[in-house]
Write a structure and sequence with these properties.
By secondary structure, this protein is an alpha+beta fold. The protein has 14 helices and 12 strands. Pfam families: IMS, IMS_C, IMS_HHH_1.
């Protein structure tokens, strides 16, 4: 039986801004762009009371909360604080699986301090984060990842919740399917269309039924509806892609404007590649038109993209195939996937030669 902790920082980006600017404390704050086509990256709890949420268009957020204060994101600051928080985690276990800058799974079944209680470890970690960063974190403690993540949402912000092995199956039974981690709006609607509204409804389905309707995800739903999740905490979690995108203040139409708009996006993607020590074989161009219709075009190369100039050439070729654009373009994005480290790429070349 594992002992898993899920740590989730409370309104992380917004809380950092309120910490660093006392004038923002107690006020509705959104981190993101205030312009017409901006998007909310994070919202303080004061803003959330008005219905402001992350990924919400800034125009909608402003309509919900006219007093909303927009702050430009400072990702370098957030990354530095995230590293500080992970140093706290590392005092207890090497088994840390980051999900993002502000959340992670920890396996403390066998921990570096020899503490028998995962709940006590979670309390210590939350206290250390508060003392060393001035920020609050919520924690969920359980015997698997699925339940630990559910638990961390129960008493936010600044809360701790435990789901024991005896409580797990019953806890899942009463849970709406939309609360299951990984079940998005489309899957929720599909489940409800099949008469599946809760964990209890899912548990009443056979494995064959769930596989028939949900494919590879079917077995996952079958087991988690019973409170069972055998996924281990993976400290060496492999990143699947690196990307960047930008939404423009005005729609773009000409090839010159589109290529110019791609330049800072390509710079950002290549910088991410260098920082992560990764190279990718598949380049994907994302285009969103003024009517919100979105398309992607990809090209997979025999060898990983070797330079920023090659990334630009492939991206421009993908873009050229879409010209002239039928409507104005409001967003462009570039993603690199099929990622390899330089060492893996060398090993792959050797195999190809053999």
């Amino acid at each position: 039986m594992r002992k898993i902790i899920h740590i989730d920082m409370d309104a992380f980006y917004a809380s950092v801004e309120q910490r660093d600017d006392p004038g923002l404390r107690g006020l509705p704050v959104a981190v993101g762009g205030a312009r017409e086509r901006g998007v909310v990256a994070a919202a303080s709890y004061e803003a959330r009371r008005y219905g402001v949420r992350s990924a919400m268009p800034s125009v909608t957020a402003r309509r919900k909360c006219p007093e909303l204060i927009f702050v430009k994101p400072r990702f370098e600051v957030y990354r530095a604080i995230s590293r500080q928080i992970r140093e706290v985690f590392a005092r207890y276990t090497p088994l840390i699986e980051p999900l993002s800058l502000d959340e992670a799974y920890l396996d403390v079944t066998e921990n570096l301090k020899g503490l028998p209680s995962a709940t006590h470890i979670a309390q210590e970690i939350r206290a250390a984060i508060r003392a060393e960063t001035g920020l609050t974190a919520s924690a969920g403690v359980s015997y698997n990842k699925f339940l630990a993540k559910l638990a961390s949402d129960q008493r936010k912000p600044d809360g701790l919740f435990v789901i024991t092995p005896a409580q797990g199956p019953a806890f899942v039974e009463d849970l709406p399917v939309g609360r299951f981690h990984g079940v998005g709006p489309a899957t929720t609607a599909k489940m409800q269309g099949l008469g599946l509204h809760s964990g209890r409804d899912l548990r009443g389905c056979s494995l064959a039924f769930l596989q028939a309707h949900f494919g590879k995800a079917g077995p996952h739903y079958y087991w988690i509806s019973r409170g069972i999740d055998r996924r281990p905490v993976k400290p060496d979690r492999v990143r699947k892609s690196l990307g960047a995108e930008n939404t423009f203040f005005e729609d773009l139409y000409t090839p010159q404007d589109l290529r110019a708009a791609l330049q800072p996006i390509l710079d950002k993607v290549w910088k991410h590649c260098d920082q992560a020590g990764l190279r990718g074989r598949t380049v994907t161009l994302k285009v969103k038109y003024a009517d919100f219709r979105q398309i992607t075009r990809s090209r997979t190369l025999l060898q990983p993209v070797a330079s920023r100039a090659e990334l630009e050439a492939v991206s421009f070729a993908l873009l050229s195939a879409l010209l002239p654009v039928p409507k104005g373009v409001r967003l462009l994005g570039v993603t690199l996937s099929s990622l390899l480290t330089p060492a893996e790429d060398t090993d792959r070349e050797g195999l190809l030669l053999l």
